[in-house]
Amino acid sequence: MFKKIAAGTLIAAITATTVFAGGHARTPIENAIAARQSHMQLYQFNLGVLGGMARGNVDYDAAAASAAADNLVALTSMSQAGYWLPDSDTGSAENTRALAAIWENFPDVIAKVGATSQAAVAMQAAAGTDLASLQAAMNALGGACGACHKAYRQAR
Amino acid sequence: MRVILLFIGIGLLGLSAAGLATAPKIDDASVFEGLTADLAQGEVVFNAAGCASCHAAPDAEGAARLVLAGGRAFPSDFGTFYAPNISPDPVNGIGDWEPIALLNAMRYGTSPDRKHYYPAFPYGSYAAATTQDILSLYGYMMSLPAVSTPSRPHDVSIPFNIRLALGGWKLLFQPQLWIVQDAPTPELERGRYLVEALGHCSECHTSRNQLGGPVTDKWLAGAPSPDGKGRIPDITPTGLGWSVAEIADYLETGFTPDFDTVGGQMVEVVENTSRLSPEDRRAIAVYLTELPTMP
A112 — contact with chain B (CB < 8 Å)? Predict the structure, then answer.
C-alpha cells in the first residue's frame, strides 16, 4: 500500500514537472532571440579581454590578445541566418531590442556585419603585435559595432 | 498642464519683459581685432561642439557628415524644430555671413537680422565659447562643401512662434557663464570648457524646469528623454561610477566598461568625441569624475 502511494506520488511529481517544463519550453522565436543574444555576449566577452588590456586594467599578453581576436573573427564569420526569424523584432516579440528596420534593410545589415568582420580581421593583425597597435584597432571595432547598434538596436 | 504653464509663462515673460532688456544682443566685429582663424583648431571646435550631429543631413555618414545641409527634425513640447542649412552656400546656407554673425548666433542666440534663435540651438552652452574658437570655427566651416538645400521652417505653434518672448527666456536662463565656478587645474578648466560650453552635455543630461530652462542644482544628473522613451543617464560620479580611463575610452571607442556599445543619440556624440585628442577626452573624463569636489 505504502509502495503504491509512493509510486503514485512519484508519478504525479514527474508529470507535474513535465507539465511545468512543457509550459516554459521556448518557442522558435525565443530560441532565436536567445541564440543571437548569446552570440553578442561572446563578442562582448572577447572584446572585454582586448579592452581590458587597451585600458591598462590587465597586462598586455600577446597570446591572450590574439586568441580573443581570433574568436572575434570566427564570430563574425559564423552564419547567423537562423537567428533572424521574421516577427522577432521589438514590435512582435518580448525581450529583444532588435528593430524591425533590420528586416527592412537587409543588404545594409549585411554590409555592416561585413565592416565588423573587417575591423575584427584588422584587430587580429594588431592584437599580437603590441599594445599600441591593439589600442589603435579598438576604435574601428567600436565604430563598427556601434554603427549597427545605432541603426538597428532600440535605445534603452 | 505642463504645456499650459509654458504657454502662460512664456507669454508673460515675453510681454512683460519686452523691451530693451530682452532685445537680441549683438557684438560688433571689433571683438576679433588681432585674432586670425586657425582652421585646424576650428576643426577641433567643430567636433567638440558636435555641429555635424544636428546640421548634417539625417543619417549622413562618413564624408557626408561635413555637408551641413540641415533638415534633421527635433520634436519637442513646443513643436518640431528643423536644423537649418549652415553650409557655406550664400543663398540657402551661411555663405554670406561674416565671422561676427556666427559669434552673435553662438554667444547671444541672435540671428543676422537681429531675431532670437530658439534654444534648440544650444547657445546657452555655446555662449561660453571663446572669441578665438568661434573665429577658427568660422574659418573651418567656410572650408566645408556648400550645398543649396533650402532650410525647412520650424513647425512651432502660437505662442512659441513669437520669438520676442524668447528674450525673456534668455534673461532667465543665461545668468552665468560657468556652472562649476572654480576649475583649479588647466585640465579641469579644459574639461569644463568642453563639457559645459562646446560639448553642451547638459542640454540632454540635465533636466529642465517647466519653462525649459536647466535645473542647475541637478547638473548632469540625467533627464527624461525628450522622445518620451526612457531616460538620459545620470553622468555624475555617483550616477555613472566609471573611472577616468573608462569614460575617456568610451568617448573614443564607444565601448562601455563592460563592452556593450554606446546607444541612442549618444552614438553620434561619440562619432564627434572619437575625433578629439586623447588629452581632450581625458579632460572631459576628469571634469566628470571630479564634479562634486568642485564648487
Answer: no
pLDDT score, position A41: 96
What residue of A is the nearest CA neighbor of B230?
A156
Give chain B's contact residues with A (Cβ, < 8 Å): 61, 229-230, 245-246, 249, 252-255, 258-265, 267-268, 270-271, 274
Confidence of residue B230 (pLDDT cuts 50, 70, 90): confident
ipTM of the complex: 0.74
Closest CA to B219 of B127, B125, B130, B105: B125
pLDDT > 50? residue A1: no
Contact A150 B268 (CB under 8 A): yes
Pairing relationship of beta strands B73-76 and B231-232 according to DSSP bridges = unpaired
Closest CA to B216 of B131, B289, B279, B124: B124
Average pLDDT over residues B89-93: 97
Cα separation of B245 and B78, whole Å?
39
- Going by C-beta distance under 8 Å and a sequence separation of 6 or more, which residues neighbour residue A128? A62, A63, A65, A66, A69
| pTM, to two decimals | 0.83
pLDDT of residue A17: 45
CB atoms within 10 A of CB A25: 8
